[in-house]
Amino acid sequence: MTQFGDFAPLCHTVPSYPWCNLFYRQLEDNNVTVLVNASANAAAAPVGINPECGILRVGFDHSIGNVANIIVCGFSIIFMSILILWTHRRKAAVGRLELLHFLALYALTLPLQLLTTGAFLEQGSTALTALSAVHAGLVAATFWALLGNAIISTQVLEDGTISALIPFNFFTLAFFVATTYIALDVGFTFTHVFGPSDPSQSLHSVPLFVLTSIWPGAAAIIYFLIMLYVVLGMLNEVRPVWYFVLAMVLFVLSQLDYFLLNKVICKGTSAKVDGSFVATILETAAVGVLYLAWRSITEESWDDDIYYPR
C-alpha cells in the first residue's frame, strides 16, 4: 500500500522525475534487486525506477537524450539572464534585490535540471546522485525566495535593507542546506537517518517528499494569496492581479503537464521526448509573467530617465 512520502508511484509513472536518481543509487548500494526492465542496466537506464516510459541514456539504442528539454533549458537560461539584467537595471524599484535573488536561484536550477533529467549521466553514479541532491536543494530554496518576495512586498520589513536581507538569505541558505543534506543522505545513505527506504521498493522519504513535492506547491499558493492582498488590499489596484493570476495558471498547467501528460507524450513519441520540456516552458513563462507583475506594481519607482554622463 502506498503511503505518504513514497516516491515509487511517481518514479514509475512520471518520466524524467529527477528525485528518482537518488533512490536508484540507494537501491544499488543496498543490493536491492527490484530494478527490472529498462532500469536493470544502469549504463543505459532512463531517469526513474522501472518507469513505464523513459528516455534511454545518450548513446544507447540511438538515444540522443532528453533533447527537447535540453534545448528548452538552454533557451530558458538565456531568457532568465535577460530578466536578471533588466531587473538589475531598475535601481530604484521596490523589492529589486529580493527579486534578483529569486531569478538567480531559478536560473541556477535550469542547468541542473538539464543534467539531472537530460539522460547524460549514468544512473547510480556519484555525479548524478550528487547533482540531483543539489538540484533538490536549489528548488526548495527557490520557492522560499518566491515566498520571501511576497513577504517583503508587504513592507513588514523595508526591502533592500539589512533587516530584510539577513532573514531572507538565512532562510534561503537554510532551505538549500537542509534539503541538499537530506537528499544526499537519501542517495548515499551515509547516516541512515533519512534512508534507506523500508520497504526498499516503496522509495520512501517523508522529508524529501515534503521539501520537493509539497513545499513548492504550498509556497506558490501562499505567495499568490499574499500578492492578492498586497495588490487589492494595500495598493487598491486591479490590473496587476491578472499578471499574478496568469502566472499561477501557468504554474498549475506546468504541474498538470508534468504529472499527467508527461507519460502520454513519452509514449506517443516512442520515448524520444517526454512532456518535461512543456513543463519547463510553462514554468519559465510563469517566472516571466511574475517579472511583468513586479514591474506593473513598481513602475512609478523606476529610475528610467537617469542621466549617465559620458
From TrEMBL:
It holds the Pfam family Chs7. GO terms for cellular component: endoplasmic reticulum membrane. One of its GO terms (molecular function) is unfolded protein binding. One of its GO terms (biological process) is protein folding. Signal peptide: none annotated. InterPro entries: Chs7 (IPR022057). The chain crosses the membrane at residues 67-87, 99-121, 127-152, 164-184, 204-229, 241-261, 273-294. Coiled coil: none annotated. Keywords: Membrane, Transmembrane, Transmembrane helix. This is Uncharacterized protein. It comes from Postia placenta MAD-698-R-SB12.
